[in-house]
Structure formats: C-alpha cells, structure tokens
Amino acid sequence: MQGLAANLMPPLAGRTSESLNGAVGQGADALLKLQRDDGHWAFELEADATIPAEYILLDHFLGTINQPLHERMAKYLRDIQEEHGGWPLFHRGDLNISASVKAYFALKCVGDAVHAPHMIRARQAILQHGGAEKSNVFTRIQMALFGAVPWRAAPVMPVEIVMLPKWFPFHLSKVAYWSRTVMVPLLVLMALKPQARNPKGIRIDELFVTPPEKVGNWHSNNTRSVWNPVFRALDAILSFFEPMIPKKIRQRAIDQAAAWVKERLNGEDGLGAIYPAMANAVMMHAAIGYPANHPDAAIARRALDKLVIDQPDRSYCQPCFSPVWDTGLAAHALLEAGISKPQLEKACDWLVGKQILDVVGDWANWRPDVRPGGWAFQYANPHYPDVDDAAVVIMALDRLDKQKYRAAIERGAEWVLGLQSKNGGWGAFDADNTYYYLNHIPFADHGALLDPPSADVSARCLGMLAQLGHTKDQPHVAAAIDYLRREQEPEGCWFGRWGTNYIYGTWSVLCALNAIGIDAKDPMVRRAVDWLLSKQRSDGGWGEDGASYWTDKPKGECAVSTPAQTSWAVLGLMAAGEVDHPAVAKGIDHLTVTQAEDGLWKEDYYTAVGFPRVFYLRYHGYKAFFPVWALARYKNLRQSNATQVLFGM
Predict the structure, then answer these.
(1) 3-class secondary structure for 510-543?
(2) CB under 8 Å to 517, separation ≥6 — which residues?
(3) I need a labelling partner for 148 at 20 to 30 A (CA). Which of 319, 403, 502, 541 fits?
(4) pLDDT by residue (tens digit) across 250-302?
(5) CATH class label, 2-43+322-640
(6) Model confidence at 11, in pLDDT bands (50, 70, 90)?
(7) Catalytic residue positions?
(8) Domain boundaries, the chain
(9) How far is the first Cα of the chain from the last one, in angstroms, to the nearest whole number?
C-alpha cells in the first residue's frame, strides 16, 4: 500500500530545472568544503553504545581512568538511551541486552548513581529482558574480566587454536579477517584470565535475574543445526581437558599469538584497524606483562585513542576510520555533479597513494598466486585490503582519468578478479570464506564469524569489470551474473550485507546489471524495479531500518524516509531504465525539498551495518554524497534524454 500511495500522490513542488541545478550545486559545494587539504574525505563513523562503553571499561580494566573524558562519553551514552530504557543497536531500535549491559556498566563506572532515574529505567529494562546472563559471548567475556561472571560463562576457546594446521576443521584462515584480529588477542586473555584492576570496585550484581554462580546453561548460540549439539558437546570436553594442557605448550601458543598480533600491529592505525581488535591487543599486552611504555603496548594504545571523537559537550569512540571509502564515494558523487580537476585529481592522487602493492595479506592464504593491489577501508590496514573499496576506487580513477591512473587501475582490477570465489561472487576480504559449519560453534553466537560472498560486494565488482570493458561472454563475468541471479530474493530484491539493507543491495545489483548490459526487460530486473516501487513512501522517499536483517521483519521499510536510502532507490531505478518514471521524479523531489540550507541533509537513522543483527553503523558521510550523486545523475540523464547509465555504480 505504501508504493500505491506514493504513485497516486501528486508531484511535489520545486522539481524545476533551476531548483534541481541549485540543489546539485549547493550539495557539491558543501561536499567540497569538507575535503581535507591533502585531497581526501573522512567523515565520522558512529556505532552503538558498545564502543564508547567498552572504551570506558577498558580504562577501568587497566586502571588508567580519564574521568573528564569518561564523563563526556557518559553524556553521549545517556543521550542515546531509548525510551524503552535500554540501548539499541541502531537509532530507534529495540533494546539490545548486550549493548544495554555494557552501557549501564560503563555509566556506573563513571559514577552514575544506581538510583538515578535513567539507571533505574535501564536496570528494569535489562531485568525484564532476562538479565545480564542473556548477554552475548563477547559481553560475558568482558564481565568475566571484571569478575562479574565466572569464566565458565564463556565457551572454551583454547589459545592453542593458533597452532592448528590449515587442514584442521578450525583454522584462523577459515574465519573472517575481523574474527581473526579480534580473536587472537582475545584467546590470550581467555588463557591468562586476568582480572580488571577496577579501581572503584564496580560490580553489576543487580543486573542478573539469576545469580551468575547459579546459572547452569550459558550457551547462547541457538542455531538450528545438527552441528549445534556436536559443538556443545565438544565445548564440554574442552572445558574438562583445557586445565590439563602442559604449561610449555600453552606458553608457546601465547607467544605465537603475541607474535601474530605484533606482525599485524599496523602502527598507529591499530590491529585490523578496528576498535574491538585494537582494544583486545591493548588488554593482551597488559595481561602478558608489558609495561605501558613498551613499544608495542604504547603504539597499540595510541591507535585506540585516535578513534575518539572528543567534543566539549559529549564524546564517543568510533569503531574505525573510513577515509578510503568516503573519498571514493565522494569522488563518484562529485564526478556525477560535473566536478573534475583539480579537486578530484587531488583526491584520486591520494587514493593511488593508498594502494597496497607490497604487503601480501591474509587473503593470500587461499589465493597465493595473486599479486597485492587492493585498497583498505581505513588509512592503513595493509594485511586486510577490502574488495568493495578497491572496486569503488578503481571505478572513480577510471572515470576521472583512465590513462593517468592506468597502472593503479590494472593492478587493482587484477587483485579484485583474483579474489573471485568459486560460486562467482565476492566476499569483502577473502575468497571462498564459506565454512558455514563454524557459525554453529558456541563462540559464534553473533553469527558473523565468516566473510562469504554477498550480492552487494559482488555487484560492485561486476560493475567495475563492466566499466573496464569486460563483457558478458567472459567466464568470470558470466559466473558473477549467474551468482546474482541465484541470490535474488523471492520478492525481487537483493540482500545488502554492508548497507541497510535490501534497498542497498538492490541498488548495487541494478547498477551492475545495467553496466554489464543486462536488458532492462529481463525478468530479474523487472522484479527488482517492482519491488523498489512498492516500497516508496508517501512522502516520495524510501527508508529501511536495521530490523530488516531479522527474517521475521519487513524488507525495505522504516518509520521515516532517509536521504541515503532514497538516493539508492532512485539510482537503482534509473540504472534499470526508469529515469522517466513518476516514482523517480517524486524521489528527486523528496531529496530537493529536504536539503538543508548548508547544502547537506539530516539523517539520524543508521543506514549501514557491520554485522547483521549484531553491529550497525551510521556513516555521517552518506547524507552528504549519496543525495548529490542521485540528484546529479537525474539531472544529467534528463538533460541528455538518455535512459542508460554509463558507469558501474
């Protein structure tokens, strides 16, 4: 009914040529003002309550309390507490028990009184949802470090895992890059079982429905699989035998884990360049006895502190930086808006300088014959380049000056093509990371242990290949198209692994199919168009919240329209040949009339995801570059009377 209402709605005022030109120009100018002196863009990247809460808890673990900073972070945590009393994974989401326990724990550490109204509401909400014992594995490990739960609350993960051979059913190379970097230092912590210094002696006994020592079943990975009871039984066996592991073998494993971390410490950009891995590395160094001024410990801590957004009124900690992603997408938006040199040449020169050419990363475990050539998501993360970023950057370089950047484009495309999985798709960081049985181990209750191919990343790679001149009759291209056909949902949409959600996935795939020359009349394309049209809201926009990652929730729906998702929808429709469809005009109207005076847009809702159902992201840059991109493309297609988009995204 939402789509029907939208199509019956009269056009909004303001979609004149003059107003459209003004919106594009104003948006492009606003985006250019945010470009850094060296040519790149870097926007804030916000997650949920867990990262700032964990930052506070980390300092209480180490005993290095920065009270003024913690109080500003506490202000942030109070500000994002929802009306239900707890903390969600995304704006206006339902209570998440793990995020709520961590936020409450952190606020109590900062000094918030348990009888304060916001703490009472939080505590009541947590207890109504089963108490802290219902938290996920990572939260239970955090509580075990503080003595709030016994170590048996966490599944057994012996540090000797790092010594297992590659042929073994569980091997570090068989899980995702983020799992690897988070897990290795965590294994050391789980082996040594250090206790937090916790100088204020904070406890959270009041958050448990059942006293922790009386909880009989801590298992939280309840996947329906024959593997689940097998792995639970294995966990019980390991629990019995782990204390018997000889001390020499254990020490050798700890040393090997510490060496693994050291090799990937990544300077002031941090282990894996993501907060959870970096925080675990800091705690690992403390647990094995490194003083704070030890070179490895000191640089790991500096990397962590660089993630803090410290403002006078409130502060928070980012999960990571996103400059390569931001710069690549901003470049596409501005190229569409007609901006080229010198601003974008400076941006593309900066991107070329970030290409990874001399580090053979973990991806080579399964593709040893492929040369390095990708780009990371962050400022530096050479062991873990990102296929999605590489494809976006390559397409931007090709659009601006394919001759000047020819060497970078060819080397990057070679690397991307080398990481195509056997099923025709691409994962984000590794090829064929499809050991699905590992998602059923007790440790993997978050369901995000792996990095299998996904429709959105695969579409980006297909779009890149098309833009570079590859054709449908080439085997690697045909395999990618077949993969996307198989991945289409019954409703006609595609799943969005890294953006929320089916709107993002459908936009990504429609752009790629257009670029490679799939006929707009193809049933696959028509079903996708019909789905997008059915999800348009009465105000002309589109929106989808993070709940759509649960199978029992609606796809492509939200309480509000968002600028990023509205942009994806109209970009997808235009890629499918629907430039003149009234729904596209209404979507463009919505973007035009919701543009703020500063040329940007307001977007409170989270429109991206780190791990579906576990960890969500709010890219502050999405509201800046995607609407400009959509408006400019509409303007260009209408002025040229064209219905075919020329680029891979």
Answers:
(1) HHHHHHHCCCCCCHHHHHHHHHHHHCCCCCCCCC
(2) 466, 471, 472
(3) 319
(4) 999 999 999 999 999 999 999 999 999 999 999 999 999 999 999 999 999 99
(5) mainly alpha
(6) very low
(7) 388
(8) 2-43+322-640, 46-207+228-317
(9) 29
